[in-house]
Structures are given as structure tokens and as C-alpha cells.
Amino acid sequence: QVQLVQSGAEVKKPGASVKVSCKASGYTFTSYGISWVRQAPGQGLEWMGWISAYNGNTNYAQKLQGRVTMSTDTSTSTAYMELRSLRSGDTAVYSCARLNSGNRDAFDIWGQGTLVTVSS
Amino acid sequence: DIQMTQSPSSLSASVGDRVTITCRASQIISNYLNWYQQKPGKAPKLLIYAASSLQSGVPSRFSGSGSGTDFTLTISSLQPEDFATYYCHQSYSTPPTFGQGTKLEIK
Q: Which among A18, A48, B12, B81 could disulfide-bond with A36, CB atoms 3.0 to 4.6 Å apart, if both were Cys?
């Protein structure tokens, strides 16, 4: 079935970096983009950025520019999100989501989420 | 950025009730409006896309309507598994933005 499976929970110290993976299966990876969305504890959903799995084009949220990098490996159908210079406010569940341009760019498939905890 | 405002922020209802959640965009977004359901500890699930199209596999008691700036999600007859938090999402322009969520609780 169509699914996105993410890497496991991470605990990082302030100033460190984290890289979360998102492995796609059940569909043609390069036919869809991947967005990353995060959710701080008890808070709402925040879009972090998008990457085209077709050509690697990216678009990042302005507040994360310079700290975030999204990439893909088409040989393994995997998307990655790296966030650097972590601070306590980055503690959140990070999710990848498939962007379906045929459905008004809705996020139709989501990964299970990866909890990233930033703590000294 | 386009601001999305949901109302109410929380709602208590009973099984069998008809429930409506509203989402308003700060500018016209045509029908680039999507609705998600999220249960605790789980990823969001797409319910409605393009304002009124039912995602495959979603029960027909869920429906969406609206265009422009004002949108609604309606659950025609609440079931026990529908108690969750609901989010609207505009995909009209970058950055895509979400409403703050509506928590639907059991009365």
C-alpha cells in the first residue's frame, strides 16, 4: 500500500543537527513532491518546506531559511529533512507528507511522525 | 502569509449529532482548501480536498463546502471514532498554512 515510513525518535542537544528520513513505497516516488510539517507539543501544524522528488527543487519556510535542508534519494525513494543549530523551540513531531498536485496540493499521505527533542 | 481562522476552537457534541466547523481565510483562496482529522499521537489524515471532494476511503458522513474565503466541514452524524482535532489547510499560495484546529470532544 501507499505509505511513508519515517526514522525513529531523536534526542539532541542545543546547537546540534538532526536528519530525519522518510521512505516512500507503493507509488512512483518521482511523481509527487514531499512536504515537511512539524507540530510542537500541544500546538498546531507548521509547514517547513517542500521538495520535488522529480528534480530536487525546494521551497523552505522563511523562518527556517539557512537552518533547514531537504533532499531526496530517488534510488531508495527516500526524502530527508536536516535541521541545524537546534534550539529548544525546535522540539516537535516532524512529519513528511506527500503533496498531491492533482488534488489541489493536498497532503494525502503522511508519515507516522518523528519526535525530535532538543534538551541540554 | 494567508491566515486561516477556524471556529470554534473546541466543541462538545454527542454521538449522532450533526456538527459543523468553519474555516475563514484572510484572502480569497478559490477552492484550495483541505480538511484533516488528527487523533492523539497520530499523523493527520486527509478527509476533504478542494473544499468539497471526499478523499478515497473517508466515510460519506463527512462533507465540505465553500469557496473564496469561507468554508465548512460538516459531520452529518457523529460516530465515536470522530472525536478528534480537525484542521483546515490552504494550498492556494506558499507558504501553505493551517487553521489552529478544532478539538471535538464527547459531551
A: A48
Single-letter amino acid, residue A3: Q
Please report, for residues A27, A32, A34, B27, B105, the alpha-carbon distance to residue B2 in angstroms, rounded to integers and kept in the order given: 31, 24, 21, 7, 28
As a whole number of angstroms, the longest Cα–Cα distance in chain A is 44
What one-character-per-residue DSSP string does chain B give?
---EEEE-SEEEE-TT--EEEEEEESS--TT-EEEEEE-TTS--EEEEETTTEEPTT--TTEEEEEETTEEEEEESS--GGG-SEEEEEE-SSSSPEE---EEEEE-
User: Which one-letter DSSP state was computed for residue A72?
Assistant: E
- Cis ω for the linkage preceding B8 (within 30 of 0): yes
Q: What are phi and psi of A12, to 5 degrees?
A: -130, 155
CA distance A53 to chain B (A): 18
- B91/A104 Cβ within 8 A: yes
pLDDT digits (tens, 9 = 90+) for A2-45: 999 999 999 999 999 999 999 999 999 999 999 999 999 999 99
Question: What nine digits make up the cell of A120?
Answer: 541540554
Identify the pLDDT of residue B107. Answer: 86
Each residue's pLDDT tens digit, B42-95: 999 999 999 999 999 999 999 999 999 999 999 999 999 999 999 999 999 999
